[in-house]
Amino acid sequence: MKENVHSHTDETRNEPPQSLAQRGENRTRQPHSQEFRTFIGEDWGPRPAGDQRMEVADFTALRRAKLGERFVGERIVIPAGDLQARSNDTDYRFRAHSAFSYFTGLGAEHEPGAVLVLHPILDAADHTAAAGEPAATHGDSCARCDAVTPTHEAILYFHPRASRSSEEFYADPRHGEFWVGARPSAEDMSTSTGIRVKHIDSLRDDLAKDLGTGAGSVQLRVIPQSDTATEALVAELRSQNGLAPHESSGTTYEQADAELAEFSSEMRLIKDSWEIDQMRQAVEVTAQGFADMIRAFPRALSHWRGERVLEGAFVAKAREEGNGLGYETIVASGNHANTLHWTDNDGRVRDGDLVLIDAGAELDSLYTADITRTLPVNGHFSQTQRQVYQAVLDACEAALAKANEPGVRFRDVHNAAMEVIAHRLDEWGLLPVSAQESLAADGGQYHRRWMPHGTSHHLGIDVHDCAQARAELYQDAILQPGMVFTIEPGLYFRADDMKVPERFRGIGVRIEDDIVITDHGAERISEAIPRTVEDVEAWIAKLLSE
User: Fold this and answer.
1) Tens of pLDDT, residues 482-501
2) Would you list the DSSP string of 282-323?
3) Which of 5, 103, 140, 170 falls between 20 and 30 A from 43, CA-CA?
4) How far apart are CA 492 and CA 58, in angstroms?
């Protein structure tokens, strides 16, 4: 990695003692003269043309409109978050807060430090949207919103690129073009997102406008746990202006912000058509990654950290075709499969092992797949491995069948899988009571010893999407078109589990697929990734023969 070549001349020797923060610049050497600034700013060719309007821009306008309708008259603050230090002065790769990405369409590693604000149009509360239409956010470029009354003006605050004659151009490792490439101009950003933009330096003054408790004043809400600096600014402005939000209902600042996070999360329970297309693409890339891992089986068998050989194959594909990983990949061979979140991936892969791989590729849009397959490393299931695998596969099928029934609630999908798991364990003589007794609401749930996690979670821009949604809209909700979730039952027989026959010990199996609810029922969008015993064995044989 190149150093930031700031240059401190000999004149600094007579300066006061440096603070710890200042000492980070001691390694750097950078010219400051006006002559150098003029010289470096001269004779550059034209920059590439800016991005065109993003396809998602029409969808994000509608999302902001729905959010604005819920919080009419209030100022809504949605930070992207900022870079986080990994070690000393090097940062982790940036990933925007999911709410920011959802409402702006900005994914990949775009715009650390940016903030989306929905400023209330103060007379909007006196108007209603046209029947059957969402309210629009003023300033959004969306033809579908032109006929309705706006509730908010959306403004994206960010740090646009500086001129080549500025010191920032060559000296700023956070924003300088020499360091991070040609950043978008204000015009570029507005064109691509369809949102009015302003420099981040104007954020404080704009957030402070019209604050108070009297007539015509506004209240602030900010997405919690999104960005420490922006949340601190909101707290400061609230304090300075004596704001007492929602006094009539007794709502505190913390509760007000939690309501914003809750509603933003619940909006994502139903995906629009653009999101569903992203999910299909993420599954496709993930399927390619699984194929590359299987091709790497021979090398994994000969490597002292075979699990990491397989992990590396997947990471390469996810990074080549998308933004990277949606979550840390699990590659768990043999007994490691019985550690649910095994991400060390530092073990051997041995002939005769099953290897449980839980992996998802994240696209540049930040939408991620979440797929698990349990694969025989030598290409063939043993009789006992097949027995356990088939039980889990049958649970998957039962859960999908339940999701296809009308009026089914989200929690019913899990219950259907558990019916199969409990009865299979009962058939094998592992339960101290009957399957029905174990499954009963007031029963012992003994079967959960070998299947301790949930069967399903919503999936989207977060791998565990919509996590702030209320239970009545999540676990208790009736399945609706546009919902995307996983089905992932498993059976885990630890090597030290004395309650199971020796032949089962050390076997862990999970099968996970991604599901979308359509107008025609539940569709397994990961159908193309082989799942049955016969198809998995044929898949491995084909890939290893290429």
Assistant:
1) 999 999 999 999 999 999 99
2) HHHHHHHHHHHHHHTHHHHHTSTTHHHHHHHHHHHHHHHHSS
3) 5
4) 45
Structure tokens at 182: 């040609």
Distances (CA, A) of 544 to 120, 305, 307, 526: 60, 20, 18, 22
Give the C-alpha distances (Å, rounded to integers) separating 64 from 152, 162, 256, 267, 313. Answer: 9, 29, 18, 10, 38
- Please say if the pLDDT value at position 8 is more than 50: no
CA angle centred on 229, ends 225 and 231, rounded to 5°: 50
pLDDT for 147 beyond 50: no
| DSSP conformation letters of 327-378 | SPPEEEEGGGGGSTT-----S---TT-EEEEEE-EEPTT--B--EEEEEETT
CA distances, 480 to each of 296, 360, 398 (Å)? 40, 24, 19
Q: For residue 177, what is the DSSP state?
A: H
The strand pair at 90-91 and 115-120 is best described as unpaired
In sequence order, the β-bridge partners of residue 74 are 219
Fill in the amino acid letter for 462.
Answer: D
Half-sphere exposure of 103 (CA within 13 A, CB side): 29
Mean pLDDT on 291-311: 98
> Could you give the CA distance from residue 420 to residue 428 in angstroms, rounded to a whole number?
12
**Encoded tokens for 465:** 């999407």
Collect all residues with Cβ–Cβ distance below 8 Å to 188 and sequence separation of at least 6: 50, 51
pTM score, two decimals? 0.91
Question: What token pair was written down for 408?
Answer: 């089914």
In whole angstroms, give the CA distance from residue 198 to residue 221: 20
CA 525, distance to chain mean position in Å, is 19
Residues 84-120: pLDDT tens digits?
999 988 899 999 999 999 999 999 998 999 999 999 9
Task: Using a pLDDT cut of 70, give the percent of the chain over it.
Answer: 88
Give the pLDDT of residue 137: 45
- The Cα 326–Cα 382 span in angstroms is 32
- Name the more confident of 22 and 332: 332
Return phi, psi of residue 368, to 5°.
-125, 145
498, 489, 480, 501: which is closest to 457 by C-alpha? 489
Residue among 406, 423, 521, 410 at smallest CA distance from 455: 410
pLDDT at 131: 30
Q: How many residues does the chain have?
A: 546
The pair of structure tokens assigned to 80 is 């992207």
Q: CB-based contacts of 481: which residues, under 8 Å, 6+ apart? A: 270, 517, 518, 519
